[in-house]
Specification:
The protein has 210 residues and is of the alpha/beta class. It has a single domain, classed as Ribonuclease Z/Hydroxyacylglutathione hydrolase-like (Metallo-beta-lactamase, Chain A), CATH 3.60.15.10. Helices cover 22% and strands 30% of the residues. The chain is built from 6 helices and 14 strands. The longest helix is centred in the first third of the chain and has 12 residues.
């Protein structure tokens, strides 16, 4: 499967476009600013149709273009724990960048931990990983050994927990029970920074040890 990572403004948030080999569809993980225009060009070039937008959590830097995908009729998946952030983004004004246009994002499919969803010919397991935000989730594809973890875990670091709804003890538990229990070879794609793997973080992450 082809995975294209776009690191987008205003604070270098990753958006991932997944192009499965045996499907006419595609999947986008997270919708930072400019993701709609970026992905639209790629879809035209590849002749694909976007099947879904998966949101790892509701923080503004991951959802600024979400409303554009709503307008285009793309199904949006997210966890209800971040409903307030998605439906009333002005709640994030205290920790966003002044002047940003933040519009509500409509969620078509609320997911929860242990849900299994099939999109674009791929089977996904949803795992709840609260701690960075109440509605943080990861999307794991066992067949491809891929996990998109949002801001729960980074290469050599973890998500911040000083924002409203954050809790380090909860995040640590999420990482130990929901991420470190994935196969060590699983490729981990975070919301910021480079790709890593479950095994690498289990061995060397200085914040949460296996």
């Amino acid at each position: 499967m082809e995975i294209r990572c776009y690191t987008l403004p205003p604070i270098g948030t990753n958006s991932y476009l997944l192009i499965p080999p045996e499907s006419e569809g595609a999947i986008l993980v997270d919708a930072p600013l400019n993701s709609f225009a970026t992905v639209e060009k790629v879809l035209v070039q590849t002749g694909r149709k976007l099947s879904a937008l998966l949101l790892t959590h509701g923080h503004w830097d991951h959802t600024l273009d979400g409303w554009r995908f709503n307008q285009a009729g793309i199904p949006v998946y997210a966890h209800r724990g971040d409903d307030l952030l998605l439906s009333q983004p002005e709640a994030m004004s205290a920790f966003s960048i002044p002047g940003l246009k933040m519009q509500p994002v409509h969620v078509d499919h609320w997911v929860k931990g242990d849900d299994r969803i099939a999109i674009a010919g791929m089977d996904w397991e949803v795992r709840a990983v609260p701690g960075h935000s109440p509605g943080s989730v990861l999307f794991w594809c066992e067949q491809a050994q891929l996990a998109f973890v949002g801001d729960a875990l980074f290469a050599g670091s973890v998500g911040r927990t000083d924002l409203p709804g954050g809790d380090f003890a909860e995040l640590e538990t999420s990482i130990r029970t929901q991420i470190y229990t994935l196969p060590p070879a699983t490729r981990v794609f975070p919301g910021h920074g480079p790709e890593t793997s479950v095994g690498t973080e289990m061995q060397s992450n200085p914040y949460v040890h296996a």
